[in-house]
Amino acid sequence: MTRITGELDLGRVPDEQYNSDLDLRVAVVREGNVLGSAVVKAGASKQKRLPFEVEFEPPVLPGARLPCPVTLLVGPDVADRELLAIDSVRQVIDFEPAKERATARAAASTAADLKIGRIAVEPAIYYCWLICCRTYTINGRIVCRHWYYDPILHRWTFCDEPVPGAVVEAYDVDRFWWWYWRDLITGATTDINGNFHMTFRWCCLRWLPWLRANPAIDPDILSRIQQLLATAQPPLPPIPPEPDPDPTIFQRMLGGAASVTGPVLAAAAQGALSLPAVQQPAGALSAEALRAVLPPSPELAALRVWPWWNWSDCAPDVVFRVTQRCGDRVNVIVSESNAQTRWDIPTTLNVTLIANDLACCIPTCRDPECPECLKLTWVGCTPVDQISADAGPPDLRGLAHTTAAASDPWKDNPFYGSLQIQGGLGWDVDYFKVQYSKDGGAWTDLPSPAFGGFTRSYWDGTTFVPVAFTPALKNGQMVIITRRHYEDLNPGIPRFGGQVIWNDYATLFYFDTTQPGLTPDALYQLQFDGFAADASDNLVASSERILPTCGEDSAERVYLRIDNQSQTHPAPTLPAPCKIPHACGGIIHACTVEPDCYIREIWKNEGLPGQECVSACDIARLEPTDTLTIHFSVTCPATVQDGHLGGYWMRAEYGANQAFYITAPLYVDASGGAGTLQPDPTAEVGPSYSQALGQGAPRALWYGGDFKVTLHGSDFPECCAYLFRLWAWKRTTNGCSDPSVTHYNQFELSFTVLRPDLCPGVCVERKAEIA
Length: 771
Fold this sequence. Notes:
Layout: E1 2-9, E2 24-30, E3 33-40, E4 49-56, E5 70-76, H1 80-85, E6 89-93, H2 96-101, H3 104-111, E7 113-120, H4 123-132, E8 133-150, E9 155-162, E10 166-176, E11 179-189, E12 195-203, E13 205-206, E14 216-217, H5 219-228, H6 247-254, H7 262-269, H8 287-293, H9 298-302, E15 312-313, E16 318-326, E17 329-335, E18 348-354, E19 374-379, E20 382-383, E21 418-425, E22 431-438, E23 444-445, E24 451-452, E25 454-459, E26 464-469, E27 472-474, E28 477-481, H10 483-489, E29 507-512, E30 521-531, E31 545-546, E32 558-563, E33 596-604, E34 612-613, E35 619-621, E36 627-635, E37 645-654, E38 658-663, E39 676-679, H11 689-694, E40 704-712, E41 720-730, E42 744-754, H12 760-770
Parallel strand pairs: 1-7, 8-18, 35-42
Antiparallel strand pairs: 1-4, 2-3, 2-5, 5-6, 8-9, 8-12, 10-11, 10-16, 11-14, 13-15, 16-17, 19-20, 19-21, 21-29, 22-23, 22-28, 22-30, 24-29, 25-26, 27-28, 30-31, 30-32, 33-34, 33-36, 36-40, 37-38, 37-41, 39-40, 41-42
Helix pairs in contact: 7-8
């Protein structure tokens, strides 16, 4: 271990510039690493001489006897990265004189204790430390944001609930073209109200991206720059040229422009001068030179990656990452992308961060429940008051979003799978069971496991502790204990403000419609049977009652039309001339008929002289006026409990990320697609549920059928292999999921289209091969 001692001389710093809050730091540096450092406290009144002492392990190369020279840096008391980047007082500490004076042993002994005397701090650099380094404060709050529909105001609104015990990390983001860096600034933990507070020092740094190690590549930015530079001149090197930023790459891009004088560059940047005409030798890299020769991009400039950014990084550019331990897991509940960076934040920043669904929050957006009743609120993410009880005609019972606009893709949605049933239960109810009626039949107790439990957690002051609420057989009844009764039975649970803090007050149970004992597709209605418990926690038989709707005399019930994806795919069709095989399996066409979709036949110039069929892997030669007719089917089971087809689209994909829609709902493609959609012979062609209703399908049933769509040769923009993708979906949801990606199916085939008017050379070569 070596010790360096000396004094910082502030004698030339004017008294009026001296700041007693500015502590200094002396660091020993070698190859960009701080080997050791010491903080020198500023006195309440100015002192001309401040002694310091730094210990460090001297760097000795393998096989060497004497240490390498080091550099002593003097600057403000900031983190390593900032100290290395800002203007500082520097002095090289060379061990060479010691070696010359004595033997190696004596030199090593001398090097162990170096006295370097006085280091003068000039007023100009001290003033820079005062104005270049500022204290930043971030005040923030982490919340769970809950949106709900207010039936009184007839509008959506939201309420925020605090996230306690979350670890918040603030990162500084630096970007340069497609590279980026994230450096941890500081961290904090939220209190019970979800609030956090951070304070840190930040200095104005020089921005030299090629000195930053270990960059990451942003694929989105890289793609945008590649597209922008695809036609740029002069030719650019391969992108990215190297794993790390390399200034010589940009110098080669500039060619003779790098050392052009400022006025000439300014004129070129404004388009008043053609820069390639100016013949200058390559020189130093500059922002002005890059702006002059590279194409403009307001979009990339707004993201601070194009074509350059400032030489100084004088304020933090902040994103947040937040984790929280909830139960036995640590979840990432906020993870901001580079696109969410807050550039050049002010010295005081106030933020509200919205946590994702993995956060455990304190439910404050609720009123305590009234006794002797039940109010159902949500099924998954669907408000109960948006689930119809209208028996019609048409019969809309159990369908969600029945009052949505005709063009809304979320309309007349049945449910599937395991459904989270939520509501507010009277505090006087100790246990409850669930009863169901199927298709208007008798009420029956819902059996387990269709009567599914769940886990909610209480706050113990530092973390959330999970508790299972699962159905259990008690006094001959399959019941779930209520939250309030669990609190009564467990008085040791911590209270805050006189109440137990739970992360979930609303969940009642999970209705798993896929379990044995239930019919996969049916109209279900649910009601709840409540019980009180005696002092021994046994059910009081006389207390059993069907729970009424709060404020009404009738039972609280909800209809749920269930449509699970239960019917399987038929056997593959046999091969036949001009018939495209209809088989399922693998990763493309699922073995289900809920829904089914496939292409049956494809004909060139159908019904015209010289018509011919096209199959997968064929080569179709099309003149611009030739027709290409695709016969296809999109269906769902023709049963009383089905008919929930939602829509479909067909798309032609070709080349590199190129595609056009052949037919599609208007909310998927505003043009509706390039093809002409016709009955074949099913009249309700869609391609959306709302369009099918307009074509004659009875609400709320659309079974689909056989259709055809016709293209022309002119619709194919180039000679290429085309993949025809048919995608169909039902309207089913679990209350939260997007129907278009819930119960869906797809079918694909590909063939090559050659247009002699676009690629005559290809056709000539083919004729030559045949000859």
